[in-house]
Amino acid sequence: MEQNAKTQRQICSGVWGVAACGLLWIADAIAEEPVRLDEVSVTATRVERPTGEVPQAISVVGRETLADKKMFNVKEALQEMPGVLVDSKNGGSDARLLIRGAGLKAPYGIREIMVLRDGVPLTDPDSLTRLDLVDTQDIERIEVAKGPGNLFAAGSAGGAIHIISKSVFDDTANNFKAGLGSYGARNLHLRYGGMVSDQQAIALTVSRREMENGWRSWNEFDTTQASLKHGIDLGDGALLESEISYTESNMQSPGVVDEALFNRFKSTGRQKESSEPWQHNGRYSKVWFLNTRLEKEIGDITFKPRLYYNTWYHFHPVSGGINEAEEWVSNVGVDLETHWHHNKGTLVAGVTARRERTPDSRKYEFADVLTSGGRIVATLSDRKGDLMKTSDATSLLTGVYIQESWRPGERWIVDLGIRYDVVDFDDTTMEYRKFDYSSGSYKAGAGLIRTQKTFYLPAPKLAVSYRIAEGLNLFGMVARAGQIPSFSELSDNPSLEAPVSTNYEIGLKGRARDWSFDTSVYFNPVEKEIVQQNNGGVVSYLNAGKTEKKGFEFSARYAFDRNWDAGGYFSYTDYRYKDFTEPVRVGATTVNKDRSGNTLPFIPRSQYGLFAGWTQGGWRARVSTNTWGSYWMDSANTERYGGWDWVTNLAASYQWRGHSLSMNVDNLFNKRYAMEAKKDTAGKVTYAVAAPRALLFTYRYDFQ
Q1: Which residues of 575-607 are buried (b: 16+ CB within 10 A; e: fewer)?
Q2: Distance between CA atoms of 146 and 161, rounded to whole angstroms?
Q3: DSSP for 55-97, written as a single string
Q4: By CB neighbour count within 10 A (0-12 exposed, 13-18 middle, 19+ buried), where does 34 fall?
Q5: Is residue 316 a contact partner of residue 290, using CB atoms and an 8 Å limit?
Q6: Of 122, 225, 385, 647, which alpha carbon lies 20 to 30 A from 461's?
């Protein structure tokens, strides 16, 4: 013991004294107590592994944490993670989501981030994700892997979000739930299932969520969802699970406001109008979703084939026109995954293919508009007018992947692999009319437009984890991935190239009986990054020459005793253009302005939060608070928005036998702020306001 103390004193006096002493102290603390059970992840490597052993920044929101959320949308589950920026306008399937800056250019939906449900991609081959088909009441856990470097993320450099639904074989998930809250919030949910024979299980899930959101005009949301799951235990380590679901989702999308209306919102808590002409945007969809997956072990080999199909219709008013799928869009895919378990680790390999077909997509003018001086200044309804264009589009993604998770020694894990995807786009558009932003009116279109493009996207990865002590792992990784442009981006700029993102990262993870932590430092240069440019309402996309993203992330949790726990997170970012010229209209001409060295807009330099939880008998309570620091509103870095501080959420519940009553309060202190502030190249400033305080009371009965 004395010799160990002497050795530690010698180490602490060296050049690396501070870091070494810290590691020694942590190692000693962990060695004195058994390691706490860790959450398990499959997203980064497709192999089940405790998150502490995954050599990548990854977070898991488990069942216990989700139980404290009302779960109207994914924001509630993801808003307490460093490097993840998420918010929602209507509290439903609408979401503004970024991971380490990826997704910044998305005007709606989620881009640059792969979203999966039970291993099935919800992200289109062109990288756009819509969340309207996700039943947020049927989630077991959510895994978030940040940046390039996982085998699930095809053509998505920002990372992957994997939503794991409740298993058909889990009868403890059976429950009935009814909720009622402010602004017309209502929630009904029923999940019931069980074994119907020695080998088979069936589970039925029905959910209804709605919000009137009367504090803001044109902001209603409702969804009705039903799913039927079926599982068969085929024996000898084989399982076959299938699901069919149907969703009807109706979401109004409120417009942004100018500074005068934003100040009115801050004083009244109400937004009754928008400063933009397009005041009747939304998305109204119907979705069928089918998937089936087999898991079969034969000796050291495990086969995991998946087959899936979804088809959807939508009515989708957006800026300048109304999109509608005259024929249902179809998306079919297959993923053939194989694991070989050998005495030094696991080899994962597979092939995948996805095809999306949009046979007759149409865009219409808004029929009812208010004009002034020939310009459209406001829409009066979302009724369709004259036909603007028709489109017939197909996208096909094919890919192969292979990764060896090698254990060369007792303390080491080495993940070495590559994913290679090819994406083909084929779009034939007949444009009869178009909206001209410079004149503010509809004009003659360009006629026949044909777009054909192929992208080749290699994504190699090398990651290493070293166990310093039991429960303490040091990791490092380097990974690269290409980013698929979306159809809308290509239609605006057919010359777009696929950005290439490379991530260099080192980090430390600790897991003990009473506490855990994750921390990492990363450097992420991106070549040809696609950025969105807004010039007086004219949105265009172009490749930035190069950007560099540097960041630090930390999260921790500590359990004081059986009743109390607390934790928090912090991230620091420095995201800059290294080589970028932005086209800016000056009068009738366009001038290229050099933005090299400027900071990317919208990304706060700092982001942090705290939480505390308490349990006693049947009582549970949890309070959390989150802060986004200030950020630049434009690429020119001419104006900053102050961000928002300590927006606090509260959850409290009481459970007696199978019954429970809970209360959720979002934005407890009724902060009035903007979830996003922008300034375009013409100097126009707009704000998307965030929701005021909202309450939801829920009764739940768990079937025993």
Answers
A1: bbbbebebebeeeeeeeeeebeebbbbbbbbeb
A2: 9
A3: SS-EEEE-HHHHTTS--SSTHHHHTTSTTEEEE-SSSSS--EE
A4: exposed
A5: no
A6: 122
Residue with structure tokens 């934003």? 262
Q: For all residues of the chain together, what is the average pLDDT?
A: 90
Query: pLDDT category, 438, cuts 50, 70, 90?
Result: confident
Q: What are the tokens at 500?
A: 């290439």
Tokens 């004193």 sit at which residue? Answer: 9
Contact 470, 414 (CB under 8 A): no
β-sheet bridge partners, residue 206: 190, 226
Q: Give the list of residues 6+ apart from residue 572 with CB closer than 8 angstroms, or none.
A: 551, 552, 605, 606
C-alpha neighbours within 13 Å on the C-beta side of residue 464: 9
Total residue count of the chain as it appears in this document: 704
* Predicted structure pTM score: 0.91
Strands 114-117, 159-165: parallel, antiparallel or unpaired by DSSP? parallel
pLDDT tens string 290-340: 999 999 999 999 999 999 999 999 999 999 999 999 899 999 999 999 999
At 109, list the tokens. 């939906």
Closest alpha carbon to 553 in 42, 65, 59, 25: 59
- Give, to the nearest 10 degrees, the angle between helix 2-12 and helix 17-31: 150
The domains located in the chain, with CATH, are: 1-30 (no CATH), 33-702 (2.40.170.20)
Alpha helices (runs of H) in 242-396, residue ranges in sequence order: 259-268
Q: In whole angstroms, what is the distance from residue 541 CA to residue 272 CA?
A: 31
Q: 3-state DSSP call for residue 267?
A: helix
The amino acid at 538: V
Answer yes or no: are the C-beta atoms of 114 and 143 closer than 8 Å: no
